[in-house]
């Protein structure tokens, strides 16, 4: 794509705070944006991006709203090309890569091809807080090495299976109810640590699990490519956002050009849970959220979450949450 021949979208005042959780939408003639956000008390912000444009677009922003912050971007499904500080640094991110860069109130721009759904996630924190983390956990000589590595230019590494797992855990943190805040905060720091470790030690490839590790069926683990993990994460997002849909492993495998056995084994390997169990968990969590909101009754919540057998739903709900749906609905 030649960026000189595509329209320029000026996002001078495009602040994620205006768009996350559906607060504001992109004009339909430009494209679509679904943006979710989670904030931790420790000043780290987590964004889940899902966007597409009607035409090839160069999205440009002249500054970072006066902020000096560290941005960690996980590219999930399609090549992203961007420029930093008016082109001083040009970055190409392949699917399955994560990069860290210091946005010192720079002008930035990203080029997007039309009719492609781009999915990526990001962590953002003030540079002062990032330096606080370094000073809290590293000796002085290591701190200076880290600053030179992470605060002066863009660095990249591969998204490992452990990183994918933590991203999934953050996305599903609602299940921890009142403990959600502390869980998310801990996972965000854990994720930052994994990214820094991967870059520092040049771990750019996905690390396969040892052949000695065996699942319940005693089958050996699969070595996953970056493309496999990208497709897997896209599938997980689909399930998370629409758990009521029917997900047949055989059909999903065909759509991903995988064998059914590879899909099911790989999903369990990456996320630590069988595919069918993940679907059920997401359905139950959706039902619990609907019951908590109080706008539908228990039967309606079950149906909207993909259940048609009420006795089966009640049994699975109690197994997961420790109480019946009726008792859960009465818990303030």
Strand order of the largest sheet: 2-3-10-5-8-11
What amount of the residues lies in strands?
A: 15-25%
In one word, what is the shape?
Answer: globular
Biggest sheet record: 6 strands, antiparallel
Distance between the termini: 54 Å
Radius of gyration: 21 Å
Mean pLDDT: 82
| Overall number of strands | 11
Oligomer: single chain
Concise overview:
The protein is an alpha+beta fold.
Question: What features would you highlight for this structure?
Answer:
332 residues; alpha+beta; six-stranded antiparallel β-sheet; five-stranded mixed β-sheet; 41% helix; globular
Walkthrough of the structure:
Helix 4 (161-171) runs parallel beside helix 6 (226-241). Helices cover 41% and strands 21% of the residues. It is built from twelve helices and eleven strands. The strands form two sheets. The chain has a six-stranded antiparallel β-sheet with strand order 2-3-10-5-8-11. A five-stranded mixed β-sheet has the order 1-4-9-6-7, with no helix packed on it. It has 332 residues and is an alpha+beta fold. The relative contact order is 0.09. The chain starts with 7 loop residues before the first strand and ends with a helix. It has helices spanning 16-19, 127-137, 140-150, 161-171, 180-200, 226-241, 249-255, 260-271, 275-293, 298-304, 310-321, 325-329; strands spanning 8-10, 31-39, 45-53, 57-61, 68-75, 80-84, 89-93, 97-104, 108-112, 118-126, 155-158. The chain is globular and about 60 Å long.
């Amino acid at each position: 794509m030649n960026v000189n021949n595509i329209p320029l979208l000026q996002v001078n005042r495009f602040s994620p705070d205006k768009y996350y959780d559906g607060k504001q939408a992109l004009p339909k003639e430009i494209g679509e944006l679904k943006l979710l956000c989670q904030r931790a008390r420790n000043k780290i912000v987590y964004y889940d991006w899902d966007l597409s444009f009607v035409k090839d677009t160069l999205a440009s922003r002249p500054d970072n709203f006066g902020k000096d912050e560290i941005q960690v971007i996980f590219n999930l499904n399609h090549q992203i090309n961007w420029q930093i500080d008016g082109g001083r640094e040009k970055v190409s991110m392949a699917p399955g890569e994560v990069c860290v860069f210091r946005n010192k109130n720079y002008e930035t721009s990203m080029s997007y091809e039309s009719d492609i759904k781009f999915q990526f996630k990001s962590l953002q924190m003030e540079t002062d807080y990032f330096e606080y983390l370094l000073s809290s956990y590293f000796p002085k000589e290591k701190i200076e090495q880290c600053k030179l590595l992470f605060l002066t230019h863009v660095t990249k590494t591969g998204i490992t299976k452990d990183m994918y797992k933590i991203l999934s855990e953050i996305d599903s943190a609602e299940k921890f109810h009142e403990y959600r805040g502390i869980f998310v905060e801990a996972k965000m720091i854990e994720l930052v640590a994994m990214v820094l470790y991967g870059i520092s030690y040049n771990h750019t490839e996905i690390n396969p699990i040892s052949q000695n590790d065996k699942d319940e069926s005693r089958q050996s683990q699969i070595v996953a490519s970056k493309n496999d993990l990208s497709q897997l994460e896209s599938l997980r997002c689909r399930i998370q956002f629409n758990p009521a849909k029917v997900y047949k492993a055989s059909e999903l495998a065909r759509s991903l050009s995988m064998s059914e056995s590879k899909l099911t084994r790989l999903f369990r390997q990456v996320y630590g849970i069988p595919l069918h169990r993940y679907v059920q968990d997401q359905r139950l969590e959706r039902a619990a959220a609907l019951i908590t909101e109080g706008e539908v009754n228990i039967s309606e919540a079950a149906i909207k979450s993909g259940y048609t057998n009420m006795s089966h739903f009640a049994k699975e709900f109690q197994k997961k949450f420790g109480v019946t749906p009726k008792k859960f609905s009465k818990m303030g």
